[in-house]
Amino acid sequence: MSKAFTPRMIAGLRPFVRTRARQLAERLAAVAECEFVEDFANPLPLAVLSEMLGVPPEDHGVFHTWTTDIGLVFSLALGGDVVTRVESALVGLDEYIAALMARKKAAPAGDLISALVAAHQDDPLISTEHLRNLIVTMVFAAHDTTRHQLANAMVAFAEHPAQWRLLGSRPELADRAVDEVMRWLPSSPTIYRFAAQDFEYQGLSITEGTFLTMCVTAAQRDPRVFRDGATFDITVAREAPLLQFGAGPHHCLGVALAKAELAEALPALAARLAAPAFAGPFTWRPPVGIHGPNTLPLRFGPA
Known about the structure:
two-stranded antiparallel ribbon, 11 helices, 7 strands, globular
């Protein structure tokens, strides 16, 4: 089934991403201030996700609510209405995806769900429930992480305006800029692993099976691994891989799509707008799970 999620499909989406990013950038250029999360970081990955999966435009609003609330699954310990929101989103999205799969089976189109449903018919080892769960997980991952990574990128560039101006004048640096913002301020700042065997780390004994939480952000600024790791610089080709996407058979399935979205969005913004500046205070989601600003008030000006 992974064959449906191919480089060719990503390449086919890039013109759509580019056009949508430029349209949203024009809207930002028309206002003195914006709330970047709702005005750009939310609608871009949501539009791309809907285009990829075949979600009709009239469903984008409720789809947005579900994908946003599912991202709170990492914040259950905060209490309040978080559990209720996550449960409601899972039920709503699960039912919606089931109905959408049925529609795609009856009338296939050129979208990912149609491809997955067709592949499922040829693979009896994968149940309909497993396929539905895969799509629900993909929906959550493709929207929430990319939304926060876009917002995190703006935080990084607001704090390093010279780097923004450099990207605006040198759009060929887009791919390095994407890797650098993901290194500097990742939307997944922690990763979780179980120890595969007993070992000792700097005097700390770790037994096999121990659940470990590791800080990606600190590790990716370590100058022993990343040359000048404490410096944000989009011109540097970093040799060490990013940690938040995993490795081997568990390497993130959607990383190519996320990078494609940012690689189109960042130069589109930098070519049209002056460096971002904070237009007011903002708060952050908890630094566990998916991390980024809840809101991000920014000021831009014409380049």
